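Please decode residue identities from the backbone states below.
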């Protein structure tokens, strides 16, 4: 394979900042010497030696590290090992992740329900509208005296959840909260960032325009009669692999749940804070959000543990609902998140004091059933203004956030891929790529708390992971990198007849549980990924996986711009 492309050289396939760490991982036997050459003239510009071997604990496979951090000249290059081959091309430049950051938020535009996507914004992926959701039926599981089963309500807009066309409040909650937190953490950068969506010319930052598409939908999921929130807006069963406009199956709002109410309470409380600054452009929006939040909270107070159990639901009601369940069985953390956001927005301590913010020592990384840390991040964001019990608790919350970050980074330099992600097999769950992104966010939160740049460098190792420095050799973001998913489990990407999938979408990632029973070439934790549309357990895309990627990529870009 001398002089050919080698897929055994694993690196961030987009590139590196001039001043950042630059690492490639070699996964095959090879000579020790490597060099960097320009892509155009094949001019050798730097040479170095590989590290000693490191062992992947999951598989006993061996890696070696090519570290070329000290090479800082801007340009487009490849890494060469004589006798093995050359790497995919990569750039060294400032703003090197701006494109993937914008691409991954632009993906949310492509995920919009109830609207056509025009050529101006969607290019060759333009499509007609699907799922107007202006005539949605109240499912028997959601019936009340004011809204009997079969009542027609309107619940348009929102983002499709994932590869499927349904809209789930719980998963929308963490997604929207993550994007609003990106805005609150990097307001200056996000005020200026724009990526060609229909609203780009208005006075609102594109990020908040995009979020509003979903927020407006979320507000329709609240029953104005009692403040309760439907768990999801969905077909009874999954649509086929067709374009949005093809589907005509009835849509339902299904059972109210405490998780949905509290997630909506958290998001709308945060949104009220954020959109308050745009009262002139969106009169009444911040007020409506706050009212929705308080009403949802009060519903939850009266209905503190209405869990969503789809099997139980199907034992009592027709039609049976077999789409995504998002059936969280413990809503303590949803209480914490909603309480934190409501307290921070209203400054009323009753919300904070209604929950125990430090019930135990656990620090579960954010995921759709685990939102405790979203509350901690928000408290950290406003730590200077805390009062009462919140002020008293905060030093402990800060300590735990930093401890969790420090635990994540302690061993990274000796790891076979030198990334925060994948140090333990437990990282490789359904949607494992969102684990990598959320670890990165946690580290950026640690940076915000300490201004210690090492946390940003370690966060960057996980962006490197997602963009190619991993055991599969894929850059997991469609359209960004050289070897990217071509067959994600995503209905429009599969059904539109266009070779390239919709760009900017993050595949779920390695998942050795392989619940889809597709044909995988490896069952090892860090390799159990297959670029096949069949594979919803490793190759689906989802808004709650894209959102932390958006945060991580923009966060790192924003901090790089601050002179890192
Ligand atoms: O939490 C356990 C962990 O302790 C254990 O080690 C691990 C071993 O497999 O399993 C973990 O639970 C898994 C959980 O995801 C992790 O978040 C469950 O087994 C797994 O079944 C569960 O999968 C969820 C999947 O729906 C099936 O319900 C995914 O989180 C969730 O992202 C996914 O969401 C779907 C929607 O239902 C429908 N729309 C598409 C969307 C994305 O695939
Ligand atoms: O497309 C569905 C995907 O969004 C879900 O994550 C997945 C698991 O719930 O289910 C997918 O739908 C499949 C269904 O479960 C079984 N029949 C085939 C469907 C499409 O592959």
């Amino acid at each position: 394979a001398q002089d050919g492309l080698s897929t055994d050289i694993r690196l961030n396939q987009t590139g590196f900042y001039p001043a950042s760490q630059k690492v490639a991982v070699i996964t095959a036997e090879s000579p020790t010497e490597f060099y960097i050459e320009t892509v155009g003239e094949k001019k050798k510009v730097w040479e170095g030696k590989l590290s000693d071997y490191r062992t992947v604990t999951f598989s006993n496979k061996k890696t070696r590290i090519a570290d070329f951090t000290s090479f800082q000249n801007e340009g487009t290059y490849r890494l060469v090992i004589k006798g093995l081959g050359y790497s995919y091309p990569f750039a060294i430049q400032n703003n090197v992740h701006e494109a993937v950051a914008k691409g991954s938020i632009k993906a949310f535009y492509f995920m919009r329900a109830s609207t056509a996507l025009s050529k101006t914004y969607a290019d060759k992926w333009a499509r007609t509208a699907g799922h107007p959701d202006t005539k949605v039926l109240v499912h028997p599981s959601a019936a009340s005296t004011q809204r009997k089963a079969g009542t027609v309500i309107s619940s348009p807009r929102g983002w499709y959840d994932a590869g499927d066309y349904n809209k789930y409040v719980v998963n929308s909650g963490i997604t929207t909260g993550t994007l609003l937190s990106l805005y609150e953490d990097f307001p200056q950068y996000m005020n200026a960032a724009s990526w060609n969506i229909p609203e780009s010319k208005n006075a609102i930052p594109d990020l908040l325009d995009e979020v509003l598409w979903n927020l407006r939908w979320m507000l329709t999921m609240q029953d104005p009669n009692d403040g309760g929130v439907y768990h999801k807006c969905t077909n009874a069963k999954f649509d086929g692999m067709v374009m949005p406009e093809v589907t005509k199956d009835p849509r339902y709002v299904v059972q109210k749940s405490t998780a949905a109410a509290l997630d909506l309470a958290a998001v709308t409380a945060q949104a009220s804070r954020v959109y308050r600054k745009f009262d002139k452009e969106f009169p009444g929006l911040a007020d409506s959000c706050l009212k929705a939040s308080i009403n949802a909270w009060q519903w939850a107070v009266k209905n503190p543990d209405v869990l969503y159990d789809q099997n139980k639901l199907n034992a009592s009601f027709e039609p049976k609902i077999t789409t995504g369940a998002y059936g969280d069985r413990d809503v303590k953390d949803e209480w914490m998140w909603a309480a934190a956001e409501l307290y921070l927005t209203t400054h009323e301590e009753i919300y904070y004091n209604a929950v125990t913010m430090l019930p135990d020592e656990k620090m579960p990384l954010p995921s759709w059933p685990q939102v405790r840390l979203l509350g901690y991040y928000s408290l950290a964001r406003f730590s200077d203004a805390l009062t009462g019990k919140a002020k008293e608790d905060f030093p402990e919350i800060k300590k735990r956030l930093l401890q969790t970050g420090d635990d994540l980074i302690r061993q990274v330099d000796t790891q076979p891929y030198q990334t925060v992600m994948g140090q333990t097999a437990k990282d490789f769950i359904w949607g494992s790529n969102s684990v990598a992104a959320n670890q990165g966010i946690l580290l950026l939160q640690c940076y915000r708390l300490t201004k210690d740049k090492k946390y940003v460098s370690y966060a960057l190792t996980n962006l490197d992971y997602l963009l190619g420095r991993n055991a599969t050799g894929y850059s997991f973001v469609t359209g960004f990198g050289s070897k990217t998913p071509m067959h994600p489990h995503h209905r429009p990407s599969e059904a539109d007849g266009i070779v390239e999938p919709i760009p900017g979408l993050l595949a779920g990632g390695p998942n050795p549980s392989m619940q889809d029973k597709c044909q995988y070439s490896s069952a090892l934790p860090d390799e159990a990924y297959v670029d096949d549309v069949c594979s919803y357990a490793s190759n689906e895309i989802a808004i709650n996986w894209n959102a932390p990627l958006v945060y991580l990529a923009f966060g790192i870009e924003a901090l790089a711009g601050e002179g890192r």
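Observation: The chain has a mean pLDDT of 97.
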